[in-house]
Amino acid sequence: MSDPSEMTSQALAAIGQAQSNTELERIELEYLGRKSGKVSAMLSNIGRLAPAEKAALGKAANEAKRAIEGALVARRAELEQARLADLAETEAVDITFPGPPLDRGHVHVLTQVRRQIETVLESLGYQVELGPEVETEWYNFEALNLTAGHPARESWDSFYFSPELLLRAHTSPVQIRAMQRLKEPPIYIITPGRVYRRDPAEATRLPYFSQVEGLAVDKGLTVGDMKGTLLYMIQSLYGRERKVRVRPSYFPFTEPSFEFDVSCGICGGIGCKSCRHKGWLEVGGCGMVHPQVLRNGGIDPTRWNGYAWGFGIERMAMLKHDVDDIRLFYEPDLRFIEQF
Amino acid sequence: MRISYEWLGDFVDLDGVTPQDAADVLTRQGVEVESLTMVDLSQIVIGKVLEQTKHPKSRNDLWIHLVDLGDRKEQIIAGAPNAIPGSLVPVALPGTTVPNGKVVKDMNIAGFRAAGMLCSAAELLLGDDHSGILILDRGTPGRPLTSVIPSQAVMEAEITSNRPDCMGHLGIARELAAGLDRPLTRDFMPAFTGSADPPGRDLVKVGIDDPDLCSRYIGGVIKGVRVGPSPDWLQRRLRASGVRPINNIVDITNYVLLEYAQPLHAFDLAKLEGPAINVRRAHEKERLLCLDGVARDLTTDMLVIADATRPVAVAGVIGGEESAVTNATTDILLESATFNGPSVRQTSRVLGLRTEASARFERTLPPELALAGARRAAALIEELAGGTVHREWADVYPRPQEPVRVNLRPALIDEVLGTHVPLEESEAILKRLNFHVKVMGDGEWDILPPVFRLDVTIPEDLVEEVGRVYGYDRVPPTLPGHRHDRWTPLTQSVDRRLDEVREVLAGAGFTETWNPALVSYGKLEELRIAAHAMRVSNALSDDMDTLRTSLLPSLVDAVALNRDRGRDGVKVYEIAAVYLARVGEKNTQPEEPLCVAAVATADGSPEAGEKALRRLKSVLDGCISSLSAPACTYQRAAAELFHPGRCAAVVLDGRQLGYLGELHPTVTTGAKIEGRLVGFEIDIEPVLAASRTPRAQPLPRFPAVERDLAVVVEDTVTAGALLLAIKESAGELLEHARAFDEYRGAQVPEGHKSIAFTLTFRSPERTLTDAEVDTVISEIRLGLEKRHRARFRE
After folding, report:
1. Is the CB of residue B554 less than 8 Å away from at least one CB of chain A?
2. Could you read off the pLDDT of A69-106 as tens digits, one per residue?
C-alpha cells in the first residue's frame, strides 16, 4: 500500500503534464475509478485496521481524492483555455471558398415592382380593386367617353371577340365598376392588371402588358393633390431626389388631362443619352376625372370630383432596373428572371 | 406633325425666342415636341454647274460636274443626273459636315477626283427628297447657301386628337403667341373673297346628298390660272414639311393645309362633267384612278366627290387622276369642305391609305375652317398663279356650326387646380387663346370659344385652357386630406395574400414567370384544351389569337426555352388567370379563375417521375397550408395534358381545384423535352376563401410514442386507402400517421407491395404505456386485415 501523500503528488504531477482530455480521463480512472482506482485501492483493506487508523486513512484518502479532483478540474480548464486560444490556427478554414448554390426560386421582377407600387399606394389609403380582362365595349370605351368613332380610340386599338366583347385596353373599366359598387365616396383605389392593345411587339411595346391605375374620388380634390400623390409615389419608389412633371395632354376620360414624366435618374434632369437628352422620362397619363365618367360610375359630379392616373408596370420596372427591352419580361428566360 | 420654326415667324414675333425656347413653351402647353432638329446651312456654299459628263469607268451611274464656286472651279461627282449645266446647286466642300451628319472628304472615284458633294434636299434636312440634287432658283456662286435659304429648325410634335387646329402652323403659332404673351399677327378669317363676275355659284352646280357625312362644301371657281412651278420659298416650306412640290396650284392647296390645317383640293374645271359636284356615297362597283396612280374599288360606305357622271375624288382622302390639275389646266374648281371624321377614318382604313388630308379630317374639323382655308388658298392662287377668282362661291352648308357657349364660375379654376390664379390672369389667358369672355352680373363668365375649337364644351375644358398656359409647374404638389367620417377598412389584396404561396414555391426552388395570355388556337386544339377557348376575331397573328385555358402549356414552353438556352433542371411557376368561355352563352364574359400552376423537370425513368411527383405534392401541400386553408386530398383522375396513370384531382372540402400529376408523354415530347415533367394547376380562389386564421392549440404535456408498421397489400391498394383505414380503426390516441416507404421485391409476394407507416400516438392526459399502444396497434392491424387483406412485415 502506497503512501497517500506520495500517491497524491504523483497524481498531481501526471495531471499537470497531461496534454489532452483523453489523458486526463485515463488519469481520473487510474486514481479515482470506483473499483480499480488507486484511491479506492487504498481503502481496500480498511476493514482490518484499528478504528483510529481507519479514521486517519479515511481522512487521508478523502483529501487525496479532493486534491486530485480539484487538479483535474483546473487542468481541464487550462487545456480548454489553451484550445480556445489556438482556434484561429487549429481550425482555420478557407473562408473565401464559395458556398454551394441555394436551390431557391425567384419572384418575377414584375411581381416585385407591382408589390412595391401597391405597398406605397396602400400607405396612402388606396385599396386594390380587380376586374375582368375580357370586358364589354361599354365598360372599356363608352363609359370612358370613348364613343364609337372617337378619334382618340386609335390609341386603344383592341382585340375583339365580338362587337360587344373585347380584351380590355386599360384597367379603367375597373374604376367604373368600383365606383358602381362602392357608390359613396371617398373612393381611393388602385387597379393593377393585365391589359391588351393591338400593337405589334417591339422593344418598347407589346400587344399585352400590365398597368396600375389609380382613382381618387372625394370632395374638393385638385390638380395639386394629383401631383402630390404622383410625387409621393415616385419618390417612394425611386428615391426622394426624383421630380415629377405633368404636361397637358388629352384623354377623353379626364379633364384636364396630362402625361406625367419623372426626372431622369441617370442625369438628374440635365439631359443624357438614356433620357434622349430631355431630362425627363415619360411614365404615364393622369388627369381630373371627367364629370361624365363620374356620372357613368354613378357618382354625382356636383358633389364629388376626382383624379386618376395610369402607367405600365413594365415601364416602371424598366426605369428602375435599366431593362431596355420590354419583351424580356414575358420571355421566361431564367437568366433574366434570376437577376432580380 | 412637322413644324418649321421659320414658318411660325410669319405669325408671331420670335425675336429673342430660340427654337428650343419655342419647343419648351409648346411642350409645356400640351403640344409635345418630341424632337428638335437644327439645320445649320452656314457651311454649305452655292455652286453653278458648268459642265456635266457621265463617269466613263464607274459601274454605278455617276456624273462628273465642273462647278463654279465664284473664286475657283472644282470637279465634283454626283449620283443623280438632274444638275445639268447652268443649275445652281448647294455644295458641301471637303471638311464640312452636311446637316444629315455626313462628313465630306476629298475623294477619288475610279480615277476621277471628287472635291466635294452636291447636296439633295434630304441631305440638307430640307425635306425627304433624296432622288436628285436640290436645284436653287437663285443665288450667287461662292456665296453661302444661307444667303438664299436661312438655317432652319424643324420640330416634330405630337398633336393630341382633340386639337386638329394645331395640325397647321397657324394653330401652333397661336399656341406659341399665347404662351409668350405676344400678339398673333394673322387673323383666323382672311378677308379675300374674289370679285370676278359672274358669281362662282352660277358656274358650277354643287349638291350634298348625305349631309351627315359632309356638313359643308365650298367650291370656288378660278379662271385663267398659269400652272407652273411654285416659288422657291413655297417649295422649300413644303419640302421641310415632307411634302413634294408638284405645281403651283397643288402646292398652294398643300401649303394651306400645312398652314390652316384645312385640306383643300383643286380640280381641273374643264374635266368635270356638268360642271357639277355631287357629294354622295359611292355606287356599287364604282372605281377611281387615284392621284397616286392606283385604281381603287369603292364601296357604298365611302363618301365620294362626283361630277355629273362619276366619282372624281374619295372625300377627304385622295383626289382622282383624271380631274387633276395639269400644266394644261387654265380653270379650276377649288374645293374646301368638311367631312365626317369617323367616316373619313373608316374609308382611309379600308383603303389602307392615310394622307395629310385624311389625318386632319378624321379628327373632325370645324366647318368654319373650310371657309378660312378656301379664302387663304384663293388669295394665294391669284397672287402666285394669276387667274381671277369669281365672287360668291358655291357654299352648300346644310349643317351650320352652332356656337357653343360655356358658363364658367371662375372660382372653379382655383378649386380644380389647387392654386390661386388671379382672375385677371385667367381672363387674359382665355383672350390670348381667342376666347370671348363676358363677365355677367352674378360673377359667372359667359365664354364663347373660337370657331376652330370644337373641343371646348364644359367648364372643366376652360380650366384646362387656363391651367396649361398659366403653367402646371406653378401648381404646388399637395396630398389630399380631409376629415373623413366614412372609410373602407384595408383588405389585403389577393396578390399580397398569394405572396405566401410565392414564398413556399421560392423555397422549393421554383421561379416565377409571367407568360403571355394570348396563345395559338391551333396549339390549344392540338393539346385538346380548346373547348372553352375564347378566340380573338382580329388577332395580329395566328400564334396569339386565343386566350389560354391553362397555364401549363406556357410553363412547358418555359422549360423548353430554358433547355434551349443551356439549362437543365428547370422549376417554374405562374400565377395568372385562365379564360373559360361559359357554355352556351356566346356573348358573355368568360370565367377568369385565378390559377397557380407549376412545372418541374425530372429524369426519364418512371421512378424519377414518381419521385418528382411526390416532391411536387409536398410543394402543393405547402402552398395550400401557407394560406391557412385545410389540407387538400388527391384522388386518382384523368385529365388532358396529364399522364393517364399519374394524375390526381386536387380536392378541397369536396370541391375540385385542379390537377396534379406527371405531364402526358406527348405533351413533353411535343415540346421536344427529354425526360419527364411533373406539374400542377389549381384554381386558387377557393383556397383563399377556405383560409382561416390559425388558432393556437395547447402544447402537448405528455410524450408521444412512435411505432412503425409495414403493411403488405396487393398492388392495387393505395396508400390513401390504407391511411384512411388506419385512422378509422385507431381511435383518439393516434395523433398522426405518415407513409414513408414503398417496397416491391423479394421480401413480398408477387403482385404485392409493402408500405411502411410511422404512427404517432399521444394522450393529452397521461404518458402512454407500451401496453396501451399495443392494444391500438392490434386494432389497426385488425382493421387493415379486414378491409384490405393486409399482412404485416416485422
Report:
1. yes
2. 999 999 999 999 999 999 989 999 999 999 998 889 99
B496 lies within 8 A of chain A by CB: yes
Q: What is the 3-state secondary structure (H, E, C) of B749-781?
A: CCCEEEEEEEEEECCCCCCCCHHHHHHHHHHHH
Residues B334-362 have pLDDT tens digits of 999 999 999 999 999 999 999 999 999 99
Query: What residues in B contact A334, CB-CB < 8 Å?
Result: 511, 562, 567, 570, 572
Grid look-up 418575377 returns A108
Q: Round to whole Å and give the CA distance between B746 and B753.
A: 10
- Phi, psi torsion values for B257, nearest 5 degrees: -60, -45
DSSP B268: E
Residues 183-212 of A with CB under 8 A from B: 184, 186, 192, 194, 196, 198, 200, 207-208, 210
Which residue of B160, B573, B580 to mutate against A (max A Cβ within 10 Å)? B160
Residue A311's SS3 state is: strand
Architecture of domain B494-690: 2-Layer Sandwich (3.30)
**Rounded Cα gap, residues B291 and B304, in angstroms:** 14
Is residue B421 helix, strand or coil? coil
> Which residue in this structure is represented by grid cell 384490405?
B788
CATH class held by domain B45-150? mainly beta
Reference B577, options B471, B679, B468, B498; nearest CA is: B498
**Which chain B residues touch A249 with a CB distance below 8 Å?**
30, 32, 160
Its ipTM equals: 0.86
Measure CB to CB from residue B511 to each of A198, A223, A338 and give the nearest one.
A338
| Pick from B467, B484, B567: CB nearest A223 | B467
Domain B2-39+154-180 has CATH 3.40.630.30: no
Higher pLDDT, B714 or A7: B714
Which 3-state string (H, E, C) describes B160-202? CCCCHHHHCHHHHHHHHHHHHCCCECCCCCCCCCCCECCCHHH
A302-336 per-position pLDDT tens digit = 999 999 999 999 999 998 898 999 999 999 999 99
B353: phi > 0 → left, psi -120 to 50 → alpha, else beta; which?
A: beta
Q: Which region holds residue A37: left if phi is over 0, alpha if psi is between -120 and 50, else beta?
A: beta
Taking only residues 141 to 160 of chain B, the set having a beta carbon closer than 8 angstroms to any beta carbon of chain A reads 160
Interface of B with A in 26-55 (CB under 8 A): 27-30, 32
Residues of A in contact with B542 (CB under 8 A): none
Q: Does B473 touch chain A (CB under 8 A)?
A: yes
- What amino acid occupies position B653? D
Asked if domains B406-473 and B705-793 share a fold, the reply is no
**Residues lower than pLDDT 50 in chain B:** none
Which CATH fold would you assign to the domain B200-396?
A: Phenylalanyl-tRNA Synthetase; Chain B, domain 3 (3.50.40)
Query: Which residues, at least 6 apart from A62, have a Cβ–Cβ distance to it below 8 Å?
Result: none
Interface of B with A in 217-256 (CB under 8 A): none
| B91 touches B204 (CB < 8 A) | no
Residue B243 and residue B258: Cα distance in Å, rounded? 10
Domain boundaries, chain B: 2-39+154-180, 45-150, 200-396, 406-473, 494-690, 705-793
- Residue B174, C-alpha cell as written in the block: 397661336
Q: Tell me the CATH architecture of domain B705-793.
A: 2-Layer Sandwich (3.30)
Alpha-carbon distance A299 to nearest alpha carbon in chain B (angstroms):
16
- Give the model's pLDDT for residue A2: 59
Cβ within 8 Å, pair A151-B363: yes
Q: DSSP letter string over B663-679?
A: EPHHHHHHTT--SEEEE
- Distance (Å, whole) CA B725 – CA B755: 14
Fold of B406-473: Phenylalanyl-tRNA Synthetase; Chain B, domain 1 (3.30.56)
